[in-house]
Amino acid sequence: MEACFCGFSVFPDRGGVAYSGRSEDEMGTLVNYATDKGVAVLTLTDPPVNAYSYEMFKELDANILEARFDDDVHVLVVTGYGDKYFCAGANVNMLREADETFKYYFCLHANETLLRLEATPKLVIAAINGHAVGGGFEVALACDLRIARAGGFQIGLPEVNLGVLPGTGGTQRLSRLIGRAAALELIVEGQNVAVERAQTRGLVNKVWDAEPEEFMRLVFDYAHEFCPPTRASLAVGHIKRAIQGGSDMALEQGLALERELQQQLFRSQDAKEGLSAFSQKRKPAFRGK
Predict the structure, then answer these.
(1) Mean pLDDT over residues 54-67, rounded?
(2) Which entry of 112, 138, 214, 258 is annotated as an active-site residue?
(3) Which CATH number fits domain 233-279: 1.20.58, 3.90.1570, 1.10.12, 1.10.357?
(4) Residue 273 annotated as catalytic
């Protein structure tokens, strides 16, 4: 059983990978980056459990920026290599050798990386294709939507069992997602939950029963629904900004933010197209501009 600090794995090493091989679009050795018709796919790649290290998060950070600056990318999908683990949290062997100063800055950089992911004004989908525990679930929490594959997979923040707390945003994001009392209960009890139960508790948005490759195909199809010409991706990004930014503001401030973002959208080509298509009773063809 692995230890847990700043969100590492609480699962034994089970091994086994089957899906999400690397492509020629790969940007690094620990995070595979590829694009497909407006969707950027970031695959955490350190089998068998895809535990993350400082090196992996540096690559993740760079890939987030790559997707952010790419005008042809409208949606990001974050997933894990293989068919058993989305991510089991931080790499224990790395932290076992590290001093306390490194551990602190490692957590700080992880916070900054996930904040960058969360703040990117493009929709981010976590394709939870296996276990997502500790820091792995914290990565998923920084995504906008979480889709899990049905099966005997576990989701949770069990760090209290090892005498620490979820240190990569778990206490803060989970309480904002499901409320203080429900988050406190889940974290202090330290129990992982099955993905089906995780959906009823609001931890994931959808659970799809499919084989690994079919699951990822379904996720890609879903992600493409938020890309032009089907959807006004600029509006999707502004909706994300309004909800994320406004939820921490007083109502009047949130309404002001909403108005400013709406004004920006009114100037967009997609808004003109959407209004024209509605008047002409035809399907709009959005361009993401």
Answers:
(1) 96
(2) 138
(3) 1.10.12
(4) no
